[in-house]
Design brief:
CATH superfamily of the largest domain: Bira Bifunctional Protein, Domain 2
CATH architecture of the largest domain: 2-Layer Sandwich
Enzyme class: ligase
Strand content: 15-25%
EC number: 6.1.1.21
CATH topology of the largest domain: BirA Bifunctional Protein, domain 2
Bound molecules: adenosine-5'-triphosphate, magnesium ion
Family: Belongs to the class-II aminoacyl-tRNA synthetase family.
Shape: elongated
Strand order of the largest sheet: 1-5-6-11-10-9-7-8
Helix content: 25-40%
Subcellular location: Cytoplasm
Oligomer: single chain
Catalytic activity: tRNA(His) + L-histidine + ATP = L-histidyl-tRNA(His) + AMP + diphosphate + H(+)
């Protein structure tokens, strides 16, 4: 028997209504903050991710679904959203748009070859936003505010926003030097990845999942002490505006994020809920100032975040928050014989084309079973069609909630339901 590929899942009707609910809310909040949707292809030139995400990251090293197409091009299923959005910004010359920053959001499946785990899939759906073109602490704050707004709008409470500044490229160069000095003498005590990282990107040693408890990680120099005055001031302005807005956060000097191009503000949102398992990160993001230039684009900066719907739903489950199931149809037609079933088919066609949701029995069941079916489908009204009804072209329109019925012609039934 062929099964769903490892690390992927079918989202059945018993779950899909939750996705619809969440996605609708995300679209609403994006609109509140005046972000517009962008849709980029599901696959891109492999080179895009190698360059933009960076050769020293897990995504590029271990997790990409890369293939040759029949034209011998190397393509990769999109593992993350920022690189494609930035590619599109550059390709469509959005730096010339009248409105800046260009504020974009996406809601799209991502693909990563990862170890399967609760909250970790090989295909997962990310909602992400990017504001490209302006560097201003107020935009960083807008983004954090939107992020908190999203999670709180579902009623989630056990949230912890963690922020840090990794400074500008200047500050980072100084900091990286200090890290190399700090780790070099004992780097052989670290995992293989970290031994590579010390040359390629020393800051990412602080992000290592294997070595996070090593004493040298705990005693490592703090990025804050290496921020130049400009970077410090930028960070202070972000924090004081967050205080102003009453958005609670913690500063974690070891928060460096996995990707190479981040500068200034970096952040993660964690769930504090018990039973959330090993995975606690709901969302991550930050400012990227070198990325556009690195991709041969204009000298512009951006900031963004991404969250997955899968982990958002896990967080809701962990806090016992239920999503309302809006199930129901306007009318269920019960039928007593074949001719009635035929007429019901015609009526359904008319009802639906007038915007009324309706259904009938297709299994020739007894009236009692059809009534049960109407209940299960949460029908607001029912009619029963038998010989009499067909000859009079009328039926009793029964309201299920009250039990009240009205004798109406077929045409009147359609009109009444349409008005309601
Ligand atoms: P992690 O440390 O959990 O691997 P990451 O740093 O790889 O996360 P990002 O690339 O920043 O994650 O992606 C942003 C968000 O997307 C994460 O915070 C998480 O909510 C979600 N996410 C990442 N990978 C997966 C996955 N394999 N399955 C489901 N959600 C994911
Ligand atoms: Mg990951």
């Amino acid at each position: 028997m062929i099964q769903v590929p490892r690390g992927t899942q079918d989202i059945l009707p018993s779950e899909s209504y939750k996705w619809q609910f969440v996605e609708k809310k995300l679209f609403e909040i994006a609109k509140n903050y005046n972000y517009d949707e962008i849709r980029t292809p599901m696959f891109e030139a492999t080179e895009l991710f190698v360059r933009a995400v960076g050769g020293s990251t897990d995504i590029v090293n271990k997790e990409m679904y890369t293939f040759q197409d029949k034209g011998d091009r190397s393509l990769t299923l999109r593992p993350e959203g920022t690189a494609p959005v930035v590619r599109s910004y550059i390709e469509n010359k959005m730096q010339h748009n009248v409105e800046q920053p260009v504020k974009l959001f996406y809601l799209a499946p991502m693909f990563r070859y990862e170890r399967k785990q609760k909250g970790r899939y090989r295909q997962f759906v990310q909602f992400g936003v990017e504001a490209i073109g302006v560097e201003d602490p107020l935009i960083d704050v807008e983004m954090l505010s939107m992020l908190m707004h999203i999670y709180q709008s579902f009623g989630l409470k056990n949230l912890k926003l963690v922020i840090n500044s990794i400074g500008d490229i200047d500050s980072r160069t100084q900091y990286n030097k200090a890290l190399v000095e700090h780790f070099s003498p004992r780097i052989d005590e670290f995992c293989q990845d970290c031994q590579t990282r010390i040359d390629s990107n020393p800051m990412r040693i602080l992000d290592c999942k294997k070595d996070r408890d090593h004493e040298l990680v705990k005693s490592a120099p703090r990025i804050y002490d290496y921020l130049n005055d400009e970077s410090k001031e930028y960070f202070e302005r972000v924090k004081s505006k967050l205080d102003d807005l009453g958005i609670k956060y913690e500063v974690d000097y070891n928060l460096v994020r996995g990707l190479d191009y981040y500068t200034h503000t970096a952040f993660e949102l964690m769930s504090d809920s018990e039973g959330f398992g090993a995975i606690t990160t709901l969302c991550g993001g930050g400012r990227y100032n070198g990325l556009l230039e690195m991709m041969d684009g204009p000298d512009k900066t951006g900031i963004g975040f991404a969250l997955s719907i899968e982990r958002l739903l896990l967080a809701l489950e962990a806090e016992g928050i239920e999503i309302p199931e809006e199930k129901g149809i306007d009318l269920y037609i019960c039928t007593m014989n074949d001719e009635a079933r035929d007429t019901a088919g015609t009526l359904l066609h008319k009802l639906r084309s007038r915007g009324i949701s309706a259904d009938m029995d297709y299994e020739n069941r007894k009236l009692k079973a059809q009534m049960k079916d109407a209940d299960r489908k949460n029908a607001s009204f029912t009619i029963v069609l038998g010989e009499d009804e067909l000859s009079r072209k009328s039926a009793d329109l029964k309201e299920m909630a009250t039990g009240e019925a009205q004798k109406l012609s077929f045409e009147e039934i359609i009109n009444t339901l349409e008005e309601l």
